[in-house]
Amino acid sequence: MHPVVVTSSGSVRGTGRAGGACFQGIPFAAAPEGRLRFRPPVPPPAWDGLRDARAFGAAPPQLAPAPGAPAIWEPGDGLDCLTVNVWTPDPGAASLPVMVWIYGGLWKHGSASMPHYDPAALADSGVVVVTMNYRVGFEGFGHLPGVPDNRGLRDQIAALRWVRDNIAAFGGDSDKVTVFGQSAGAASAVLLMAAPAARGLFRRAIAQSIPAGARDQAEAGAVTATIARAAGVPATWDALAALPPEALLTVQDTPLRGRDDGFTAFGPVIDSELVTGQPWTALEAGAGREVDLVCGFTHEEYRGQGPVPAAGVDVGLVAEAIGLGKEAAVAYRRTHPELTDTALITVMLSDALVRMPTTRVARAHARAGGRTWLYDFTWQGPTLGAAHGIDVPFVFANATSRFAARFLGSPPPDGFTDLSRQLRTAWTGFASTGSPGWPRFTPDRPTTRLWNLPPTDTAYPLEPSRQIWERAASA
Length: 475
Known about the structure:
The chain is of the alpha/beta class.
């Protein structure tokens, strides 16, 4: 069975599956090549006849996500990557809730075609699931004079407009759209909540592990200058657009030569249009108040992101490196007297990278009157504990992918199936009804869901860390 759906650009033929159908590789924007390279997305050309939608489109240009991992983009794949994929329980249904996934990947990796993002299990729960590609790396977030910034975010908005205009044909309700994403995808979801251009395109958001990382145009311009110099061309649109994507990929990490340069040279650029600052700043002023928000973090966010802190590293120097004074190290030690220095540094870096940014988002949204729920994913995997990214296999009920095996081992531990079912029930329930199933996080009652077996609800569990960061911010 090959179901057919009529979209705004033409008819597409998908693949029937038990319990529904899927449609893959549907363009939501024209290929960003030629004069469209490094430009905001524009609508795709319409087509006559029936377009096959039974295979993923090309991934955005990028290097392999890790040493030894398979490449998901090759030079011959080109730039025609702006596509969406739809899994529907029933193309003939009406008004089903819709969930739109935004992948993470340090703003330089990611594709909807990655096996660990297979949303079939979510669709089997009675929601329409859309996955999208957006440009990453320099293609999506490189700063160029005279060219709009944040093309990757603009791609996401274009995909959400496609959802608004087309999802009813797949059985979905355009007034009941939930955006959900992890890491860079979580930051994207929160930034879109506050972006005027995305207003009204979604009703709810789930943000799994929100990092900080927006940079101003001067910082982004310095990254471009370094990359252009390494590529041997001027830092102009004409010169850089003339290079094939692989030439830029070869030098994209050139700005990361210093010890404190982080994991990626790319990220949202503060352009005073789409991005006005860190993800929580606009929420503090009430932007996105109408969007319901579930957000949270894994309990050991730093694990799996960077090297294990070496024995003997000065905790005070780490505190200074993450923007706290040396006295903060004393406060952390007083709060966690049982931890070794290595374990304490993991706590501090987990706070710096994700846990405090996510906390600030939750507090900002709740204090502005937004309906907010917070969680802490505390379930311990056998290899990396409650590391950054461990929640993804649970959301997609996929324990066998290469990505999942990194956290779960093989076979996965007992309890995976049960916790995955409960987490998916919460996510799809939120998309359907506006409640994930635990009490809201409010300024006077900061209830937090602890995702473990069994799940429990408690007062916000990181108050000592929050106070340390609050004191540093006000100093």
